[in-house]
Amino acid sequence: MTTRVRHPYLDHPGPLAFAHRGGAADGLENTATAFRRAVDAGYRYIETDVHATSDGKLAAFHDATLDRVTDATGKIADLPWSEVRQARVAGIEPVPLFEEMLEAFPGVRWNVDVKAEPALLPLLDLIERTRSWDRVCVGSFSEARVSRAQRLAGPRLATSFGTRGVLGLRLLSLGVPATPRVSAVCAQVPEAQSGVRVVDHRFVRTAHARGLQVHVWTINDAERMHALLDLGVDGIMTDHIETLRDVLKDRGTWV
């Protein structure tokens, strides 16, 4: 059974299906083409990442540098947007501004991983300016960063746990005293980390008892998707958007 909804961002019938980086399986991760493909496939939740350029623009991009997935090089934080916009993912697709994607897909709710501290305030300013509080959940591996976001924005902002918060929740599920942050609305976690299982019945039960949803990343195998949904997880992030859609259709929970 899924947990109650603590924030409008999570208000959706059935498990949440997240297109991870828009659906990264075809190599066009975090591009307008990937996001459009996910939306056309019926996705209403998209996971992406943001970095701030040297002039404060928010690029929807995973890595700190352009080197891995584009035909350009350099650290995004050191480059102005006028240079970053010239880079092409897989040599063909431009790096998008997150603000433009927020506007281009008004029916989408975005799960945004804030990759570095300079991106946090521009992101909160953008959410405020566009009144998108119900459409964005902010996450980060840094618990300090998401905690700061929550302090600055208050309960109108949905946030997930950082690594420290997830650890606290896992310890609680094992009967070890811990005090994870109470303002998070979800735990977004890998199924396992370094060979140690994170998501099991105890973890899901403990999260639900605290009013938290559990979203698991990045699951690309149909059998694992079914197993996690059988455990009662509330959402799955995938690179293979057709696979997850088919699994949810098979279960009668695709909306």
Quick tags:
alpha/beta; single chain; 32% helix; 20% strand; TIM Barrel; 255 residues; nine-stranded mixed beta sheet
| Share of helical residues | 25-40%
The rough form would be described as globular
CATH superfamily: Phosphatidylinositol (PI) phosphodiesterase
Radius of gyration: 17 Å
User: Total helix count?
Assistant: 9
> What is the CATH class name?
Alpha Beta
Q: Tell me about the largest β-sheet.
A: 9 strands, mixed
In angstroms, what separates the terminal alpha carbons?
A: 17 Å
Q: Name the structural class.
A: alpha/beta
Chain-averaged pLDDT: 96
- The beta-strand count equals 13
How would you describe this structure to a colleague?
With 255 residues, the chain is α/β, with parallel strands linked by helices. It has one domain (9-250): TIM Barrel (Alpha-Beta Barrel), CATH 3.20.20. The chain has helices at residues 32-40, 81-84, 98-104, 120-130, 143-153, 163-173, 201-209, 222-231, 241-250; strands spanning 16-20, 45-52, 58-60, 88-89, 93-94, 109-114, 136-139, 158-159, 186-190, 192-193, 196-197, 213-217, 235-238. Strands 1, 2, 3, 6, 7, 8, 9, 12 and 13 form a nine-stranded mixed β-sheet that branches. Strands 4-5 form a two-stranded antiparallel ribbon. A hairpin with a 2-residue loop joins strand 10 and strand 11 (196-197). Helix 6 crosses helix 7. The longest helix is centred in the middle third of the chain and has 11 residues, at 120-130. The chain is globular. The relative contact order is 0.16. The mean pLDDT is 96.
